Amino acid sequence: MAAELWMDAKGVIERADGDTESLLGFRNKELAGLPIALLHPRLTEPGLHTLWIRRRDGLAVLAHAVVKREGAFGVCRAYLEDVFGDEAERARLAFQYALFRGLAFAAEYGDPDLLDHLRRVGRYTSWMARGALGLSEEDVARLTVAAYVHDVGKSAIPREILYKPAPLNEEEYALVKTHTDKGFAVLQEVERHVKRQAPWLYDVLTWRWAKDVARYHHENWNGSGYPAGLAGEGIPLVARVVKVVDVLDALLHARPYKSAWSNADVRREIEAKAETEFDPKLATWLLAHEAEWTHDSDDSGGDAPWWP
After folding, report:
1. Is 164 a catalytic residue?
2. Which fold has domain 2-83?
3. Catalytic residue among 10, 29, 68, 154
């Protein structure tokens, strides 16, 4: 993405050419008459600069800027080019990936199965995002990243309850259920700092989906879940996906309080709850692709390249 801006001696933009809409969020004609300082005050200084330039949406884009004087009347021309170019979106999503994986690891530190669980949840989520939802590769990446922090609120739950090798009592279960609202609160606070300190790396849709997943992945299709008692399509789609993915992984693999279930037992459980707990369309798709439940050739522990 590149653009050229011409400014008068007072630093007012007279003309703009190039892909200003992608780079700055303004159409070319909309920039005419605006002060260049709105984008960055150094865009009137001749020379080569690398600057965080303010976009129309309030975010920032890292750009190389070549500023030259044109003639003897103080007119300037600035050529701008996005440093990341076509990799800008990838850079934002890679940042979200690293941040969310770190948050997820910290939230459940001490769980010996944690890294494998995160890897499997990521694999199942991307698999369903492509096959069941037909999302673009960028949105597959967003949903996969959001799925990593589904249980980030468990950072506020005592470890002796999280890893208790026996069924929880009523009081303990009530405390564990608070992890959904606590996860939402954790992500809101981290999001606030990212938007303030690194807005050029903030991806609004990834954060929206992550907060929806953290808060609503224990809602049930029939409205009997928590924390809000949402039902049917009132539950965010991304939360419905991660709910069935999380349950699939929990059933197929051993946990401190249970043994791994057979595929046949998992199938019966999903069939039985397809219209009570799970989105019936997602459950039907999952059951139709049983052969891929345990197909897993990635032994990287989650350190393999996460997005092609």
Report:
1. no
2. Beta-Lactamase (3.30.450)
3. 154
